Design the sequence.
């Protein structure tokens, strides 16, 4: 099977590329390297440097793909609130371009990296796929909009579209790891601060949660790759599905930092600062639907194991 992975030089993309190559797929990566790294792409994948908006010009019409895993996006919650223009352009306009590429080139399967951020302020826990979306930031809005676009393309053009709504992703796979610049994610920041003997800053201590800090559901990055493989293998009849991907366990930011401190065996100092723009108080899901329908189960469900993997 020949698959095109957009954003394959980013964190999740580099893991997916590694995974699909290991599974024997012919993997092509399209990435403009705006936030990714060329050396993060597996040697056995075919790398094309270019923008998702130009896919029709980049790929000759004789190149046939069986499916697209569309990961290329900007994904920083706070940045999306401060610079919505960038997010609508890259995540919405860019995704529309790659959807058009799929339609015009008759690529039958489309797997999209959607996000927990579409649920944002929905205040339901655990969140399920039927929970009404209520994004708390522009990032979530752009992803929700494109979920709807894929739904409409599936109905009208016979695409088999799947939106995988990733909750909080961490961990490494075969040396592929988080390399964000600047790093904004809690687990890698807390690891480096605790190791360096620095204070960890937690944004917000007045949320309506058990300890006042935000609650998130962490999932190992390799479990996303497995879900993408199952989603690609869905029947080719033209339908759209949404699946949530998490472990069903909510950890507060304070609990995450304490878990990291325990795994490292080093005590840590915590300071609280004001809330970060766009943060939802609690995002915890049930992944029962993808388990029932596609047989997905997480291989590394425990937060301590996800943290240990992030240390590799
Ligand atoms: N946080 C801190 N201190 C830090 C960094 C983060 O307190 O130094 C807090 C954040 O404010 C938030 C929590 O830790 O409350 C998690 O923040 P992350 O930046 O690690 O992750 P987010 O939940 O903001 O977002 C991530 C992805 C999104 C995705 C979302 C799904 O970056 O793309 O998970 O829940 F949509």
Sequence:
């Amino acid at each position: 099977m020949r698959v095109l992975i957009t954003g394959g030089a980013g964190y999740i993309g580099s893991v997916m590329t590694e995974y699909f190559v290991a599974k024997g797929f012919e993997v092509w990566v399209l990435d403009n390297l705006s936030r990714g790294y060329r050396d993060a792409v597996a040697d056995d994948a075919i790398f094309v440097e270019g923008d998702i908006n130009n896919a029709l010009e980049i790929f000759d019409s004789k190149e046939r793909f069986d499916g697209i895993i569309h990961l290329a996006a900007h994904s920083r919650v706070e940045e999306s609130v401060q610079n919505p223009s960038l997010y609508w352009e890259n995540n919405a306009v860019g995704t529309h371009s790659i959807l058009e590429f799929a339609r015009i080139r008759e690529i039958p399967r489309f797997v999209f990296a959607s996000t927990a951020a579409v649920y944002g302020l929905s205040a339901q826990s655990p969140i399920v796929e039927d929970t009404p979306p209520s994004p708390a930031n522009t990032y979530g809005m752009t992803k929700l909009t494109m979920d709807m676009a894929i739904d409409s393309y599936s109905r009208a053009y016979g695409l088999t579209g799947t939106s995988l709504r990733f909750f909080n992703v961490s961990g490494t796979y075969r040396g592929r790891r988080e390399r964000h610049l600047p790093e904004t994610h809690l687990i890698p920041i807390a690891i480096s601060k605790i190791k360096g003997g620095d204070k960890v800053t937690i944004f917000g201590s007045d949320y309506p949660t058990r300890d006042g800090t935000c609650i998130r559901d962490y999932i190992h990055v390799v479990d996303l790759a497995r879900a993408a493989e199952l989603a690609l293998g869905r029947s080719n009849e033209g339908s759209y599905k949404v699946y949530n991907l998490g472990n069903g366990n909510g950890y507060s930011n304070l609990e995450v930092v304490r878990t990291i401190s325990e795994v490292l065996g080093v005590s840590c100092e915590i300071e609280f600062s004001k809330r970060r723009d766009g943060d939802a108080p609690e995002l915890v899901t049930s992944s029962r639907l993808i388990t029932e329908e596609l047989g997905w189960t997480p291989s590394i469900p425990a937060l301590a194991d996800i943290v240990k993997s992030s240390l590799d």
